[in-house]
Amino acid sequence: MGNKWRKAKLALGLNLCVYVPRTLDDSAAPSSERLSDAALLSPKNWDSRPMTPTPSSHGLRLIRSGSKSSKQTCSICLTKMKQGDGHAIFTAECSHSFHFHCISSNVKHGNQLCPVCRAKWKEIPFLAPTLDPLPGRASVGWPQTDALMTMVHRLPPLPRRDLNRRHLLSLLQAPEPSVFDDDESLDLQPASSEGSSGNKNVAGHNPAKTVEIKTYPEVSAASCSNSYDNFTVLVHIKAASTVARLNPRGNQAILPQPSQTPRAPVDLVTVLDISGSMAGTKLALLKRAMGFVIQNLGSNDRLSVIAFSSTARRLFPLRRMSDTGRQHALQAVNSLVANGGTNIAEGLRKGAKVMEDRREKNPVASIILLSDGQDTYTVSGNGGNQSQPNYQLLLPFSIHGGDNAESQIPVHAFGFGADHDASSMHSISEISGGTFSFIETEAVIQDAFAQCIGGLLSVVVQELQVGVECMHPSVHLGSLKAGSYPSHVMADARSGFIDVGDLYADEERDFLVSVNVPAESSRNPTSLLKVRCAYRDPLTKEMATLESEEIKLERPEISGEAIVSIEVDRQRNRFQAAEAMSLARTTAERGDLAGAASILENCRTLLSETVSAKVHDRLCIALDAELKEMQERMASKHVYEASGRAYILSGLSSHSWQRATARGDSTDGSSLVQSYQTPSMTEMLARSQATLLGSPSTQRLVQPSWSFGSQPKPR
Fold it and tell me: With contact defined as beta carbons under 8 Å apart, do 539 and 261 qualify?
């Protein structure tokens, strides 16, 4: 027996190194003592007991001191493996373990790569055809050259008694229908559990208290003898609160299960890139993140998964995430392998078709898109100018909805790594009404997904429209500053409206309304505006309306020094910073990085002279830090193309929709990464981080820099 040692580094970012002999044999050791990567990633398998490395010819066994064996999970079917349960266990030379029947089904289709780490195996398990074959089992009718053809061959031969898993297998192997009207019936549970879309008697639910309106004129008084152009009024909208329950012994949140809060159920389609560049750690982390999403959807929520590379395939139809639905979804997601090119348009087309063809609809619908590459099949130049790709070709009409906002399905796009096409991903999200997130560090993909679904699972307002109407006959609207939200001022300039759409619980929206203020002959207050909101309650499906009190401006004969509203000033700063970001990005795309950095620096100088900066307003400080970060990411063409462009676009997406996005890898405590986070998002993030290993690298992107109990309001 030789005395050569080799260094074995555990996959998926685990910073634990041990040395094991090359030639020692562990074939006699019980397989239950081996830990797969899937088991190692489970927090329940980590404690303070030391680990003792033992040699293995097939890989690595880790045995905790003080325990006879460790729990183990098959990385294909995600069920536990243990001795004596009637199933043989295979451990490959790369150390990953599987049920023998799971992995033999995998390799009998010609695949000799580990489904977890993509290592090429020398020793291949083989299952003889006499061992419980599944009658009628045939390969899926995809072209053998297709990059996706192997993804449905990852499910094991099933006992005849296991009808649920057999049903999933038949779904994956069946040819795709021409119409995706095979969505599972909603069969909604009572609203007291996870929420209902049809029960109007929701306990403790009052739609009249779902939205709150506040208004702030830029100054409270102005001389009656003067007239004013571009007088600003801030309209502040806030959705109903959901209170996080805090641990009385500290600031840690007690995370309720989704079933404990009535909410609107969701139809979610995830469109996932499994092209060749996703192989290895990226795909493993994506599977883990999707596992988190699946486990946190409720039984009234429905999920469908589209996987795309050179072409696209629907893994399963919209299915309720009951216990059985979750099991099927986990098995299907874990069956994915990476290969082929990147056809984002085809993935989105399939995702949109799932939404278009469904027979029934949950109140909330959304698409999550993740890609680490550039679409090489669809995007073309616009009018022959190859520098201006027509990204709208990537979006089916049903997603962007044209002029029909009600039919619009938002796509929340996630650009993964340094090689994705940030411009196309941002355009997709912007056109559809979704957000764009930049995942710079692979390890934070689960947290990014968690933040997104934390919002989607807390929608309390839909189809919100904010209207403003002038009260005084001489007052007229100038402009409505609403970011990316569609807004319109009527021809007579006496009224206007903003289409906001959905609001998550505790979300806030701020809009700046510009009006003219006439001179007055008397000192009576001038009535400026009235604000009205109309929206649909997603739980009861009822329309509700409310209106603010009239906004009045005091008109003394001689006014003293005007005191500018801090609320108005900070929102002016936010709009000004967003405009500077947009202009800097346009300048950078022309190749003038120095000019782009100068635009950001000038904006920082202007912000430093505002009322908010002088009182050390936290939003103003955060905006300055964000602008500085963007300047640094324009240091060179290489830096800008690797991360600067995506960082700026994710910031623009966040500010224009006033909604949280994941962006970059910033550890700056004053970063605006957390500025639009809601308590529901923060709770889901905490739940995500509780399932991870807890290393700083997995928490840098979205970990709040303050405690739950002391989180300041930056707005």
Answer: no
- Domain total of the chain: 3
> Is 298 found in the same domain as 364?
yes
> Which residue type does 196 have?
S
DSSP calls for 64-104: ETT-S---EE-TTT--EE-TTSS--EEE-TTS-EEEHHHHH
Q: Parallel, antiparallel, or unpaired for β 526-536 and 543-547?
A: antiparallel
Half-sphere exposure of 489 (CA within 13 A, CB side): 14
* SS3 state of residue 481: strand
Is the domain of 404 the same as that of 520?
Answer: no
Tell me the mean pLDDT in the region 67-83: 63
Distances (CA, A) of 489 to 322, 495, 510: 47, 6, 17
Determine the average pLDDT of the residues in 523-532: 94
Distance between CA atoms of residues 96 and 89, nearest Å: 11
How remote is the C-alpha of 500 from its chain's centroid?
Answer: 19
Averaged pLDDT, 334-344: 93
What are 368's strand-pairing partners? 270, 412
- Mean predicted confidence (pLDDT) in 50-73: 40
Q: What is the pLDDT of residues 156-205, one digit of tens each?
A: 443 434 444 455 455 555 688 889 999 999 976 554 344 333 333 444 45
| pLDDT above 70 (res 647) | yes
Residues 297 and 362 reside in one and the same domain: yes
Rg (CA), the chain: 28
Range of the domain at 104: 88-118
Reported as a single tens digit per residue, the pLDDT across 101-147 is: 677 656 654 567 787 777 777 666 654 333 223 233 332 333 333 33
Amino acid at residue number 389: P
Residue with tokens 């003889």: 128
CATH number, domain containing residue 364: 3.40.50.410
For the record, the structure tokens of 505 come out as 């619980």
412 to 409, 456, 699: CA distances (angstroms) = 10, 10, 21
The band of 248, judged by pLDDT with boundaries at 50, 70 and 90, is very low
